[in-house]
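Protein modeling request. Please complete all fields; requests missing the sequence field cannot be processed.
Requester role: graduate student
Desired output: 3D structure, token encoding
Chains: 1
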Amino acid sequence: MRSLIRRRRPDPAQDPAPSRVAYRLTRLWLSPFIRRLVTIVIPAALVLGGLTAYATQPQQIETMTRWSEEIRASVEARPEFQIRQMAVTGASPVLADAIRDRVGLDFPVSWFQIDPAVLHKQVAALDAVAQVKVSVELGGALRISVTEREPAVIWRRSFGLEMLDATGHRIGFIDHRDGRSDLPLVTGEGANAAIPEALALIAAADPIGLRLRALTRRGERRWDMVLDRGQVLQLPEKAPVRALERTLALQAAMDLLDRDVAVVDMRNPGRLTVRMGGDAVEYLRLTRSFGQGLVRQ
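Delivered output (297 residues):
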């Protein structure tokens, strides 16, 4: 007779092999990338995110801003970072005063409040400055070394007088030419663009330099040389120095410019034309009249 109670069969032996999920997780953990990601990157990201969330609070931003400003102010106020004076070298007194006005620093001033590039740009913008160097020296001194432009000519314009250097760059304005009577005078529109040629003409005209009054630019393409007694030498557009030298050769041989000559036209290189003065024209008319027997003595 069978028992009414069903006996439980014994479980087979458990499989010691890991499950598929555990196997894959173990394989991932053995990867250097996954291990660094879990142990370094993710914790660092969490910490950084927490700090960012804390630091972006308006109250914390205000606190850190005030704290950084206090640190900066304390550093800037230290004596070793204070600039107490400014030295300007290589400039005339007038230009040195203009540089100080342009810089506009109120000493003492902190070294951190000075931008040498900005100072360089401000000083270089002055017309009379050719080159500039800005440096901060030990002992709290700001040094600005400049190379001043040398005036070469005076350019008369409709609204005033300008001093130009040998390249035609403007140096400054003057009220009267009497203050710089040693400088030659140029006039006419576009004269500043041909200052090197004007200086070459002035140098070539040295034999009559005491008689030279001005150089006038005509049509922004050629020069007229104005002498005393109202004489005018009309120079050509091309090779004006060579044409002037030929005229000076005639002056040395024939005293051409010492005669009653109003205009010497050299615009045509192949033909020199002379316009006589009023007295010479009257004398010539009188001489011709004598020759024709129209005037009797």
